[in-house]
């Protein structure tokens, strides 16, 4: 699904709204959308009305006199949408093969502290369209060192080394997750054609999928 990156809803970029939909999980309420998009309740209600009009969300159960919503199947497609120019299926197939080759490198190279145990293909690649906006892939990662204490020490040291080389972490969580992020960055290899997720991403529950590794 392609979206126009210039589109705005209530002066909020459609890309920002898409990213919000990627992370909503099972249910979300008015307060949550205000927090995530940093907007007022009146503006949040207008965003919700837009999402309802486009059938991207649907009403869910109410709790404590508060209304909640959830992504629809169409909303799941919207969450995976891209503003990049479409690519040919042949190009997408090549990108998948290249990523699987990088998976092999990650799993045998002692430098990487995590190994890839599963690669899942989902989204438009599993349809019959000839042109795709991108290739949606999800990976499952596992710590390489069975000793949790040693693994933790290695991950902290890796983050320190990254900082010494000039990398800046916006949050402590980003720093603690650097060893995982490092694997993801290598697998993506700066390709705009690849949309890479973790296997735990809720969006996978809204899409057809296929395990392609192992």
* H-E order: EEHEHHEEHEHEEEHHHEE
Oligomer designation: single chain
Total domain units: 2
Q: Mean pLDDT score, rounded?
A: 91
Shape: globular
Number of helices: 8
Please identify the structural class as seen in this structure.
Answer: alpha+beta
Span between N and C termini?
28 Å
Quick overview of this protein structure:
With 214 residues, this protein is an alpha+beta fold. It is built from eight helices and eleven strands. It folds into two domains: 8-79, 2-Layer Sandwich (Guanylate Kinase phosphate binding domain), CATH 3.30.63; 87-213, no CATH class.
Structure, described:
The protein has about 210 residues and is α+β, with helices and mostly antiparallel strands. It has two domains: about 70 residues, Guanylate Kinase phosphate binding domain (2-Layer Sandwich); about 130 residues, no CATH class. About 40% of the residues lie in helices and about 25% in strands. The strands form four sheets. Strands 10-9-7-11 form a four-stranded mixed sheet. A three-stranded antiparallel sheet has the order 3-5-4. A hairpin with a 2-residue loop joins strand 1 and strand 2. The longest helix has 20 residues.
Features of this protein?
3-stranded antiparallel β-sheet, 2 domains, Guanylate Kinase phosphate binding domain, globular, about 25% strand, 8 helices, alpha+beta
């Amino acid at each position: 699904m392609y979206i126009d990156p210039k589109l705005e809803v209530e002066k909020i970029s459609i890309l920002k709204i898409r990213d919000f939909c990627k992370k909503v999980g099972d249910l979300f309420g008015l307060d949550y959308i205000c927090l995530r998009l940093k907007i007022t309740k009146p503006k949040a209600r207008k965003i919700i009305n837009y999402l309802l009009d486009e059938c991207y969300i649907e009403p869910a159960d109410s709790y404590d006199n508060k209304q909640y919503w959830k992504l629809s199947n169409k909303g799941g497609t919207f969450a995976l949408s891209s503003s990049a120019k479409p690519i040919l299926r042949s190009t997408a197939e090549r990108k998948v093969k290249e990523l699987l080759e990088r998976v092999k490198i990650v799993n045998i190279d002692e430098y990487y502290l995590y190994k890839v145990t599963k690669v899942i293909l989902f989204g438009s690649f599993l349809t019959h369209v000839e042109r795709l906006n991108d290739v949606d892939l999800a990976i499952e990662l596992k710590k390489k060192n069975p000793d949790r204490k040693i693994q933790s020490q290695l991950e902290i040291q890796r983050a320190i080394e990254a900082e010494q080389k000039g990398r800046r972490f916006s949050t402590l969580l980003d720093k603690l997750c650097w060893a995982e992020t490092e694997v993801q960055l290598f697998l993506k290899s700066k390709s705009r054609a690849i949309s890479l997720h973790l296997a735990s991403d809720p969006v996978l529950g809204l899409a057809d999928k296929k395990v392609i590794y192992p």
